[in-house]
Amino acid sequence: MIYHLLYPLHKYWIGFNVFRYITFRTAYAILTALLLALIFVPIFVQFLKKKGWAKTEKPYEPQTHNGKIGTPTMGGIPILISVIITVLLWCNLTNPFIWLLLFTAIMFGLIGFVDDYRKIKQGKGKGLTAKQKFGLQILSASIIAIFLIKGIGFSTKLYFPFFKKFTPDLGILYYFFIILVIVGASNAVNLTDGLDGLATGPLGISFGSYLLLAYMAGHIKIATYLQIAYVAGAGEVAVFCGALLGACLGFLWYNAYPAEVFMGDVGSLSLGALLGTIAVIVKQEILLLLIGGLFVIEALSVIIQVGYFKITRGKRIFRMSPLHHHFELKGWSEPKIIVRFWIIGIILALMALSTLKLR
Ligand code: 57M
After folding, report:
1. Distance 347 CA to ligand 1 centre (A)
2. CA distances from 183 to 65, 133, 135, 243 (A)
3. pTM, whole model, 2 decimals?
4. What long-range pairs does 125-134 form, CB within 8 A, spacing at least 24?
5. pLDDT > 70 fraction of the chain, expressed in percent and rounded
6. Are 302 and 322 in contact (CB under 8 A)?
7. 194: CA distance to ligand 1 center in Å?
8. How far apart are CA 263 and CA 210, in angstroms?
């Protein structure tokens, strides 16, 4: 709104011209979402406590988690509210990518909300069945893929770090690739969100990284100089990333150890799906393996553990998956695991961004 209301006034005073700049609006999107989350999360925590929407007993959990029973969950709701208000305030709402990302946030947020709500209402952590959750995620991701490719004629080429000339056109396979990236990212973040701030921190790092990548992809001179894909309109996604970064930082203020609130599936599924969708829009899906490397490692630890468990009929590679539980059972304290994961997340993001020069 602010962009549409104030920028046109530059005809009367040149100072309003500043609202045209993506850098300016991104900076204020970060600050606005941060402030809104700092205000909304505690208000929502009071509401959640009144409703009793809190962590319930889990049948199979490290003992250290027993003290967490009663911690309010669904903190993803004030995160999404902060993001949506900020985006409506600071983004250029004629940009189709903005509406696609809002659709992603709301659809995956609803899936997570239903899962969280059913877990709370039915107790013992029984939310949506894996099939129901997976089916709804694939349906939502399919709509996103169709809108991109059929709706706005999005390129089906795949870009790789390091190889500037190797850009295979996946054609119809790109639909399935988009679904894989979005549903994979959504579930990987969901699995990672198992310790205080363990998902929130790396999400902030990832959104900060894609903020830069979106700005570069949408800037024809920079994209040409770096020989990365130029995506007209992708620069506006940087403002959206700013809103996500700010909201994550604001939420982390309360989700940091010892957490006063968890984001719930409503947060982890939506933020993960947004990360995947943003990676697709800026044509940096392969780089997500590095930028979101922590989420990949956590998901892989579960896949390897479950696969090995089944093949060996009960043997385990890790003491418990996802990987953060393995370190808990090794006796690492929760804060130590969390901060070490954040450090690894920062290293991976810096390595990913450095590949832009290694082409
Ligand atoms: C997702 N959710 C946390 C919170 C958060 C197939 C299997 C791998 C499924 C997997 C699974 O999906 N688990 C659920 C992880 C849960 O967090 C809630 O869920 C939301 C995110 N989805 O926002 O609302 C618990 O995590 C703790 N937590 C914090 N601080 C936070 O800021 O302490 C979360 C956020 C919360 C809280 O205790 O209740 C979770 O862990 O369930 N299942 C697993 O990951 C299980 N692993 C497992 O079974 N491993 C097996 C193999 C054979 C599959 C093995 O290795 O032997 C773990 N799930 C649980 N505990 N609950 C094991 C430990």
Report:
1. 25
2. 27, 10, 10, 22
3. 0.95
4. 125/56, 125/57, 125/58, 125/59, 127/265, 134/183
5. 96
6. yes
7. 5
8. 21
Residue 207 burial (CB count, 10 A)? 26
Spatial CA neighbour of 209 closest among 29, 105, 346: 346
The amino acid sitting at 353 is L
Residue nearest to ligand 1 atom 60, measured at CA: 61
Provide the strand spans (E) within the chain. Answer: none
Distance 322 CA to ligand 1 centre (A): 8
Cα-to-centroid distance, 191 and ligand 1 (Å):
6
Residue 280 Cα to ligand 1 middle (Å): 27
Is residue 279 within 8 Å of 181, Cβ to Cβ? yes
Residue nearest to atom 32 of ligand 1 (CA): 196
Pocket of ligand 1 contains residue 188 by CB under 6 Å: no
Q: Compute the distance between CA of residue 201 and CA of residue 160 in angstroms, rounded to an integer.
A: 26
Provide the β-strand partners of residue 253.
none
Q: Is 119 in the pocket of ligand 1 (CB under 6 A)?
A: no
| Amino acid code (one letter) for 127 | G
- For 118-131, what is each residue's pLDDT tens digit? 988 876 657 889 99
pLDDT tens per residue, range 44-65: 999 988 888 776 665 556 666 6
Structure confidence at residue 164 as a pLDDT band (50, 70, 90): confident
**Is there an atom of ligand 1 within 6 Å of 262 CB?**
yes
Report the separation in Å between the CA atom of 66 and the middle of ligand 1, taken as the mean of its atom positions.
13
Question: ∠ CA 353-81-292 to the nearest 5 degrees?
Answer: 25
Query: Which protein residue has the closest C-alpha to ligand 1 atom 50?
Result: 321
Q: Please tell me if the CB atom of residue 263 comes closer than 6 angstroms to any atom of ligand 1.
A: yes
Selection from 213, 210, 200 nearest residue 294 by Cα: 200
